[in-house]
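Model it.
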Amino acid sequence: MLSYAGIKNPYAIGQYGVEKNAKALQRYRFIHESLLRIAAGHLPARENWDLKVALGKHLYEDAEAADRLRVRITELRTSSAVLNHEPDAALSLLMEELIQARNDLELAIGIYEVVKPALLQVYRNHLATTQQIVDQPTIRLLRTVVLDLEEQLAWGQEMIGHLQSSGIYDDQGGEFKARLTGFLQAAGGIDGSQPKTAALPHRWRSQQPYTLPLRSVRDPRNMGPATWARTSVAVAPDDPVRQKLFDKMRVRQEEMTAAELIAAVLFSQKNMPWEFYRDLARHLWDEVRHALFGQAALESEGVDWMSRPQYTSDYDVNAPKIPGAQYAWLSIGIEEGAMKRPGKAGEYEFCRDEAKHPLMAQFQDYDWADEVVHANLGRKWTTDLIGEDIGFVREIAKQELDHFWKEVREAERQWKEREESIS
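Modeled.
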C-alpha cells in the first residue's frame, strides 16, 4: 500500500478522541510506574536468581514505557501536572495488594498472569481501534511496549511453571491470583472501560505498607549462603594471572548486591522528579547486566558459581542508611572512584593484555563504559538527595566507604577463621 505511507484503514473513525486517549494513557503510565516500584521493592527479597534478573530487566522496560507515555500524554492537551496523580483508587489498591506478594511464586503470578497479560490485551485493542493516522504516535509507542510485553510474558509463564513444579510451595498462588483479578475488575480493567462496582473493595493484605528486608535474600536451594565476605574461585595456585581473572569474574557476578542497593534507593526515596526514577532504573539494570557478565564468564569456564557463597555486602551493610547516603556510597564513593587509574581502565586492560580472555575483555570494556554513566548519574542526583554541593557529598561518600570497608574486613576475618577451623 503506497498511499498514506502504508498506514492501513485511513478512513475508519477511531474509538479514542483526544480526551479519552489521554485518560487511557494516564492509566497505562500509572501501571508501568507502579510495576517499576514493586519490582524494585521485591528485588532484594526474592530468592530465585533468574527471577531477580528478570525483575531488573523488566522494571527498566517499564520505566522506558512510562517515560514515553509521559511525553505522549502531554501532547494530548493534558497538563504535565497530572503525571504524578493516581488515576483510579481501585487501580491503586490493585498495585498496593500486588506488592504484598509473600514469595517468588505469588509475585510472578501477580505480574505475569494478572497485570501484564491484561496490559497486553488492552494495548492490542488500543492499537487496532484507534484512528491510524491521527494517533500514529501512540501506535508507534505501544508497538514497542507490546514487543517487550510479549517477551516478558513468554518468560514469565515459563518461570511460573518452574516455580509451581518445584515442590517448594504448598499454596500454588490461586487465591492471590483470584484476589488480584477481583481488584482489577473493580477498577474497570486496565483502561477503565469495563463495568465498575459502586463500592470500592476492601483491603486484603495491604493494611500495612510493604517494607524492604534488612538483609538481601539468595536462593537457598542452589547457592551457598549469603555473606559479607568476598570469596574466591580456586584455580591452579601457580597461575596468578588466571586466579586474578577468575576473581574479576566473581566480582562481576556478585554485582547483584549493587543492583539491590539501587532498588532500595529507588523504592524508598519519595518526591523526586520522574527523571530520577527513570535514571535509577537504568542504573539498576546495568548492575544486573554486570552480574550476568560474571555469570556468563564463569559458566563459559565451567565454574559452578551457584554453589559458592554469595557476597551481599553492598546491600546488607548499607541497608540501614538513608537513600542519599546509599546512593552517594555507590555512585560517588565506588563508581566515581573507579574512574581513577588503574580502576576500570586497568581491569579492561588486564583482561585484554595479560589474561588474554576475549569474552571477559569485552565484558570489562562495557562495564567501564557503564561506570562512566553511573558516576555522572551520581553527580547529577546525590546533591539533590542530600541537599548539599558535590564537595560535601564526596565527604559523605568517603565516610560511608570507611564504614563499609571496616564491616567487610571484619566479615572476611571471621570467614577466614571459620574456614580454618573447618579445615
